[in-house]
C-alpha cells in the first residue's frame, strides 16, 4: 500500500464509528488466506474471538475466521490494515453490538447447503465473496445478515477503493470510497 493509502484506509474505516456514539469498527479476518493472519490477530491485542466453536486443534485455529474489534487509527491496526489490504484478508463492518453477540450472529452464516443438500463452508468474510454475494440477496436475506450491523466494508476488485454496503429501504446500497494514492 502506498503511504497515502496507509493513512486513508484507517481514516475511512474509523470515520463512521467516530461520528456516531456507540458505533464500533470490527473486522473479520480469514486465517485461511495467509499463515500470518492468526499470529497478527493475536499480536494485535484487540478484543477478538474465533468464529469456530469448541476446543480446536492448532492447525484449525490457524486457518479459522476471527472477529476483531478495531481502533483503525491505533498503530497496530494501521499496520494490520496495511498488510491485509489487497490480499483479501477480510471484511470490516460497524455495529453498536458487543463482540459476543456479533460472534453468535456471524456463526449462523458459516455453513450453507448446496442444491444437493451437501453442507459447505461459506466464506462470506472473504471480500471477493461478500462483494459478489450481497447484491444477490433478497430483502429477507439482507435483513438477516445486516441484523445489528450498520455498514459492511470490503476492498474493491481493483483494491483502489473501499466498498461500503448498507441497507437502503428493502434493498442494498453500495458506495465506492476512493483511496488516495
UniProtKB/TrEMBL annotation:
<protein>
    <submittedName>
        <fullName>DUF4123 domain-containing protein</fullName>
    </submittedName>
</protein>
<dbReference type="Pfam" id="PF13503">
    <property type="entry name" value="DUF4123"/>
</dbReference>
<dbReference type="InterPro" id="IPR025391">
    <property type="entry name" value="DUF4123"/>
</dbReference>
<feature type="domain" description="DUF4123">
    <location>
        <begin position="25"/>
        <end position="142"/>
    </location>
</feature>
Amino acid at each position: 500500500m502506498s503511504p497515502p493509502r496507509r493513512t486513508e484506509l484507517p481514516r475511512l474505516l474509523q470515520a463512521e464509528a467516530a461520528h456516531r456514539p456507540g458505533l464500533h469498527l470490527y473486522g473479520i479476518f480469514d486465517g485461511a488466506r495467509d499463515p500470518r493472519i492468526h499470529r497478527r490477530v493475536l499480536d494485535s491485542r484487540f478484543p477478538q474471538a474465533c468464529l469456530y466453536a469448541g476446543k480446536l486443534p492448532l492447525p484449525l485455529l490457524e486457518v479459522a475466521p476471527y472477529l476483531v474489534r478495531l481502533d483503525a487509527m491505533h498503530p497496530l491496526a494501521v499496520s494490520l490494515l496495511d498488510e491485509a489490504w489487497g490480499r483479501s484478508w477480510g471484511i470490516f463492518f460497524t455495529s453498536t453490538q458487543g463482540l459476543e453477540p456479533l460472534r453468535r450472529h456471524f456463526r449462523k452464516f458459516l455453513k450453507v447447503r448446496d442444491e444437493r443438500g451437501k453442507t459447505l463452508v461459506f466464506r462470506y468474510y472473504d471480500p471477493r465473496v461478500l462483494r459478489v454475494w450481497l447484491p444477490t440477496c433478497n430483502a429477507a436475506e439482507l435483513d438477516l445478515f445486516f441484523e445489528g450491523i450498520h455498514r459492511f466494508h470490503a476492498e474493491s476488485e481493483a483494491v483502489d477503493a473501499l466498498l461500503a454496503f448498507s441497507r437502503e429501504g428493502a434493498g442494498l446500497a453500495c458506495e465506492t470510497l476512493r483511496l488516495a494514492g
